[in-house]
Amino acid sequence: MEALSPTAILGSSLILGGVGLFFAALIAVTNRKFRVWEDPRIDAVAGLLPGANCGACGQPGCRAFAEQAVAGAMAPARCSVASPDVRAEIAEYLGVDVGQATQRVARLLCAGGTDVAPNRVEYHGLRTCKAAAAVSGGHKGCAWGCLGLGDCAVACTFDAIWMNEVGLPVVVPEKCTACGDCVRACPKDLFVVMPMEHKLLVQCKSLLEGEAAERLCRVACNGCGKCVVDAAPGVIEMKNGLAVIDYARNDLATPAATRRCPTGAIVWVEGAQPLSAAATRRFVPEVAA
Amino acid sequence: MWSRLNFRHGVHPPELKELTAGIPIRRVPFADEVVLPLRQHTGKPARPVVRPGARVERGDTVAEADGYVSTPIHASAAGTVRDIGLWPHPDGSYALAIRIAVDRYSPQAARPRLVPDWTGLGPAELIEAIRQAGVVGLGGAAFPTHVKLSPPQDVTIDTILVNGCECEPYLTTDHRTMVEYPERVQLGIRIMMRCLGVSRAVVGIERNKPDAIETIRGTLPTDIDVTVEPLEVKYPQGAEKMLIESLLHREVPSGKLPMHVGVVVQNVASAATIAEVFDTGLPLIERIVTVTGRGIRRPANLIVPVGMKLRDLLDACGGVTEDAKEVVFGGPMMGLAQAHLDTPLVKGITGVVVLSGAEVKPQVSYPCIRCGHCLDACPVFLNPQLLGQLALKERWNEMEANHLVDCMLCGCCSYTCPSNIPLSQLFALAKSELRRRPAPI
Amino acid sequence: MGDLVWIFFSSMVVNNFTLMLFLGLCPFLGVSGKIETALRMGAANTFVLVMTSLAVWVLNTFILSHAPYLRLIAFIIVIASLVQIVEMVIKKLSRALFRALGIYLPLITTNCAILALAIFQTNRDYTLAQGLVFAVGSGGGLALALVLMASIRESVELADVPALAQGTALVLFIAGSLSLAFMGFAGLLSSG
Amino acid sequence: MSAPRLLITASPHLAAGDSTPRIMWNVVGSLVPILAAATYFFGPSAVLVVAAATAGAVVTEHSCGGKGTVGDGSAVITGILLGLTLPAGLPLWMAFVGGAFGIGIGKLVFGGLGQNVFNPALLGRAFLQASFPVALTTFPAPASAGDWWRLGGDNFALPFVTARALDAVTSATPLGRMKFEQAATPLSDLVFGSTSGSLGETSGLLILLCGGYLALRNFLNWRIPASIFATAALLATLLHALDPARHSGALFTLFSGGLMLGAMYMATDLVTSPVTNLGCWIFGAGVAVLVVVIRSWGGLAEGVMYSILIMNALVPYLNRCTQPRVFGSRPVRRAP
Amino acid sequence: MSDGGAIRATEQVPVPAPQPAEVRASRLLATLGVGGAVAGVLLVIAYGVTLPRIEANRARVLHLAINEVLKAPERYDTLYVVGKALLRKPPPGVDPKKLEQVYLGYGAGGRPVGFAIVAGAAGFQDVIRLIFGYDPKTHELLGMKVLESKETPGLGDKIEKDPAFVDQFRGVRVSLVGVKKGKRSSPREVEMITGATISSKAVIRIINDALERLGPLVDGYTQEGKG
Amino acid sequence: MSQEMSPPPPHPAAHGADGLAERRRAVPPNVDLVKGVWRENPVLIQLLGLCPTLAVTNSVANSVVMGIATFFVLVGSSLLVSTFRRRIPNEVRIATYILIIATFVTIAEFALQALVPGIYKALGPFVALIVVNCIILGRQEAFAGRNPVGRSVLDAVGMGAGFMIALLIMGSVREILGSGTFLGVSLFGPRYEPWVIMVLPPGGFFTLAFVLLTISWWKRRQPALAKAAEPRGLVVAERAA
Ligand SMILES: Cc1cc2nc3c(=O)[nH]c(=O)nc-3n(C[C@H](O)[C@H](O)[C@H](O)COP(=O)(O)O)c2cc1C
Ligand SMILES: Cc1cc2nc3c(=O)[nH]c(=O)nc-3n(C[C@H](O)[C@H](O)[C@H](O)COP(=O)(O)O)c2cc1C
Ligand SMILES: Cc1cc2nc3c(=O)[nH]c(=O)nc-3n(C[C@H](O)[C@H](O)[C@H](O)COP(=O)(O)O)c2cc1C
Ligand SMILES: Cc1cc2nc3c(=O)[nH]c(=O)nc-3n(C[C@H](O)[C@H](O)[C@H](O)CO)c2cc1C
Ligand code: SF4
Ligand code: SF4
Ligand code: SF4
Ligand code: SF4
Ligand code: FES
Asked: Are B201 and B223 within 8 A, CB to CB?
């Protein structure tokens, strides 16, 4: 057979071998010129991260976090989305401590569910909080209150928010990664991301005082100032008819400040916020009666 | 040359002006309280200069301008300052307002002349007097008039356009003003021309107000160059960019103001008010308001003290009907729906329209069927279809790239959309989102 | 001449590489998200196709007639190095061009349309002119399919596609519909 | 508050009278005369085929689409229009499948009304033509007075079973005769409709009238048919002048095949045509060019369906390149 | 949101991974060179082993086709088209595979029965390639077989699968004319397939074109008595 | 960006991602084998190698032959690549892989041409195009180049089988609907009306789209979480009705 002749075999192996040599030479040259080396551990760590790119760690994305972690500028624990196992695995892989991060959570500064803070008018149009807020401030009686159309719940990519039966968003602290999406989503600026240790909360943003405030919402802060007196000095201050907590003094805060609040606007929170109709009633004697 | 006094696109909503077009203007009685929000104009809110408990007379300054783009506010009735605090504002928020308990027994007479006589004054003095009188544009935007009348050095104004279109359905404020106070309109024009040093003024009036066209024509002064042009009945003929295009065929460049094409546009009611201010010597403390709509028992054109509460005004018109559903400040195309009957009327409110349940648009929307009607309606040639779809997906930045800034929220697109998509609401939302959240870096 | 016209239209629409022959689906699915990208990818593709056609003609005419068993390896090596060289040349010549087209070049190496062109051209014994027309036509066809798909995808991004159909399934449905529409070109210029 | 509970909505607080369902049902209404004509020419088969296609569309819309979307009427239009593009003798199960495919793949996978890219009715027809090419190109001759009641062909063939083309009198369509036999059909037949072909391609005049009504009420963009007619007439005249034997004249081109129905009802589908007016002109011209190209040089006698589908694919691109010039982007022009 | 931004002092900084050393060029050369050489050897061997089978396959297909279109001749010769002539032997120095070939079949007793000619051109979808047998003495076709086509299944592919169509090509006189089904009236005419007019026409055109080109050569060869 | 510190060379991470892969080793062999069949099916889940999947699946026979050819190339190349993975310098990795793959493909091409000439013809250029099938190069890059021979071969077998299964699904659907036959055997008798489109190009796209639809339906059967209590966005007709 012609094709199997020794010359053919030799010839083709020479051709292909030659071609191979040629390209190897080419690659060797280019390789010498443009070599970029990147720490392979960045890829490895990025592969372990959840890939949510949520930004809760303060980095513009998971890969950026990985770069920082490999460089030693970020402790693995700073990723609040990854499970503890994964954090430990990254730490072990990099040979560093897992590190610590204070657990932070989104808190809603409004307790005015539809049971205590009625809607004033009917609203027709786009059913989102943002849109409703842009039409004469929305349908809620209280101009500062939650509109209950759930922009925050939709914005939360971690399913940490559910809308309860009185139309308030409830954050599940275990799921919340403190990414701050809900903060950005709310047109009424009702969410703040704060450390879990901040247990004293004023769940109201209404600037109205006294009767005017309470007419719109039975759990509004009416600016009576009792909490300011009951708390350690400097922890709470009245500003524009609203109690404002200075969290720099959080270590002095105690549940005592909530005791005499006539409306239940100020609360002491362990874990999830008490926002359901039943929970708000506890604070409002005349409703419970 | 064949001249077309028109702009392209726009819509033809029903005019619905017959309810009040023939009703003469009358004065409304004072109510118990007037509420004067500190923000009644575009720009910085005024600064209060009275304290609770203080006695004020009609025309007294109760708040003074805070900065250049700001105007003072005057008591519209004699009485006692009850409170300065948060009060529902026509824009839906709570805003600081001065509440005055009206003195029932006061004759509500004007104080002696607060505004000087105009005849001997030069432009600068006139403008200062206008500023002190708290005059703002009465066409809706409530832009401080003295600012408009003092263009920067580097632009030259050659024409004043007087906006008598009143293209919104239902409203007849400007119409009645032109029919009943033509001399005031003429005088106002004369004063503004002197302020600006301009020799030409054109009054644009939609053809559906023949009596107004005739009256204004009949009273035209002969010593200055003022003309009247009838315009096609079309919404939004009265929007200033459209008006300039229709009357002068000048296209105001995107992001620029009428003055950049040498024009100042003033509403006829603003002109009449300027004249009135110099005439009576009182600052701007009352204005003409059309109260109309299927939901009001006795539609009327009223002279209303600034700060009168909506509830009192409706009562003065016989109250609302059974099926009244929505109360709108301004016209039905661009007006703001009100959630509180306690909101006061501010200077910029041209009318109060009470819509009946049958009139309000349906709640249900359909998906966009890409009919393109909105493109054919948009007077600034945007693509509301695309913008609307982007808005529903919250792609604000792409909306900006598609000229969202040029949208004047006229509502033509929403009006015409067969799928009832709230396009202009989406655009207002997008604009506020873009303002709230600067583009991510 | 008529022959060349037929080859051109046949390869561009009647037997469109992507929609009718399933060649080059990777870029078709991968870089058809944005019109800009699609246009550039299409241009880069066409360019490489023309270069390949030229190279393959040279190979076939002067070298491979004696060693048909080296065909595939020769093609793949030539294509890979061609792309490399083109990339380097473009980089040298114009940064702008490189940014516009160059970044797509590595994707093209593993795009089966290129190799398929080489094989078709060989199997059909195309002359140099025929081969070049074929390359331009099929490159135009790839670009056409890419741009159509990209513009459709851009508009579908604004639609409320049911979760089930989102992603590749929808793209395939669109591709199927396009392919169905392109069946209208069947028999173009061959009905005599 | 003494007043009734108030409502707040965003401005504008008024809306023009047209609503999407009203537009859709108007289109359905305007199709009734065309359907009646089809019945006159092809007998009860016409009603059966259209009903089967409509059933396919509506059932799919109802079961896979959102609840209540059948009420907007668009699926009914799809069904009727699909039915009108089919031959009278088509097995009903095929018509049903076509309707289901058109709505399912042509519309619902994109998210339903308003979101689709391709004309659902035509996609359904293209699917059928590719699936069952023989059945789709078997055209019964129009019925004559005596046998009006006879069903044309294989309407009742069982699903999945090859139809046996019982004894139907089939005949070539005017386009087929033109293309494959170079034989012309009298223009009057085309205008009034006594020719063989799909159900909806009989009377060009009637379609023109019904579509004209929609155009007058602004339910369709008149620029699309105008552009199609103008371009097609121009090209046809040109080609006819070059080679009269091969290429038919303008009137034949306009009134033969599906061009009239396609131009009036299918190219004008709001959803799948451009939103800009300039886009509509280009779209129409594109359809016409493709129709003439396919009819003259393509393998198929008729290309309206494919032309519209291909141009549908271009619509997003057209929309993008024909954005209106925003007011205020003209260079400043000062009056003297 | 700014607490704990930087890592705390107690935490360790990860050890930077060392960059791997650069490979020597000789290794690259060796790898690709040896790899290429080995591949070359493998390929030649594979080619050599399969070539006989492949060529046999091809020959069998051709043989079957010729058998079919020339009504099973005893044997056939391969003739080469060179310029305007048919040659029994390819001119020296020319690769016979590059020349167009026709096949001359011989019946019982070595009597030539006709020529088998391969031809192709565009059909409905793509190129149709077919072989047909032609008797230059009677100017009739002996048979036709489609070798390659991508026509639509169910429609166009009837040109190879529908016996009613294929059988017409036995005994039809050239040049062929296509007519509608049931309209056949002369020995030159071929009834086309309903619904696949284009494919049918393409077949007819391919045959007519091929004979227009090769017919004179074939006729000449016959007249010269070499047949 | 990282500070220069004491350089301890035998760091566990020195091998980069490879190190990590080895650290997470506890993968039983059957996982290597089975994952390609379903969980990481190269076609249905990873959407690789779609060109041949669509192009050659208009009949079961074509699908099977194509599947076998690809399987052969995949397993062969994985074997070679993982055997020599420590010898191949990183820089010429891809070039060497391509050389290996192309050799196997050419061999497969000759073999098919010799053994099943009819199907070889039907497959057209797609046998040669196995060279650029991303599944093959992808597996070398992702797996065979980093893992020992045993695991690599298992992986290749799994992936090859997964590919074959995908082709078989496509081929069966398309042949049964499009021709009414399976492997050429008539299933429904002569009166079956074939859905010609299924063997035409659009049918390929549609079939794969439906297969993917089915898979995503399968994956998503768990109930969706209701997020917002009230209807959101546009109040569309269906909601109000
Ligand atoms: C859509 C639209 C419609 C308008 N219609 C009128 C109108 O009918 N009459 C009017 O006086 N101003 C109208 N305006 C306001 C004018 O654009 C402009 O602001 C006003 O005429 C300026 O006069 P002023 O400052 O005296 O109010 C409209 C504005 C917009 C955006
Ligand atoms: C609106 C409309 C569009 C049509 N489009 C096509 C088309 O694109 N292709 C086609 O073959 N038939 C189409 N038809 C049906 C054709 O008119 C019919 O198939 C054709 O006249 C016969 O062509 P044939 O030679 O393929 O049998 C359409 C019918 C209508 C009513
Ligand atoms: C999906 C489809 C496939 C087709 N395939 C073929 C084909 O393979 N060969 C062919 O000649 N015509 C084919 N046609 C073309 C039409 O059937 C065309 O109308 C026909 O060639 C005209 O023949 P007739 O006049 O006998 O009906 C096809 C049409 C369609 C819609
Ligand atoms: C003027 C007009 C023409 C239409 N034409 C079609 C059509 O050709 N095919 C169709 O499926 N639907 C048609 N529709 C209905 C509707 O637009 C179509 O179902 C959408 O494509 C579905 O999203 C038409 C509607 C209108 C108003
Ligand atoms: S969106 Fe809000 S609730 Fe959800 S995870 Fe982010 S911070 Fe937490
Ligand atoms: S918290 Fe804000 S975003 Fe969330 S439902 Fe209330 S108003 Fe809407
Ligand atoms: S609201 Fe904006 S987009 Fe709509 S018509 Fe008016 S200017 Fe155009
Ligand atoms: S008018 Fe409404 S339905 Fe029509 S294109 Fe515009 S947004 Fe879409
Ligand atoms: S382009 Fe064809 S397999 Fe990737």
From this structure: no
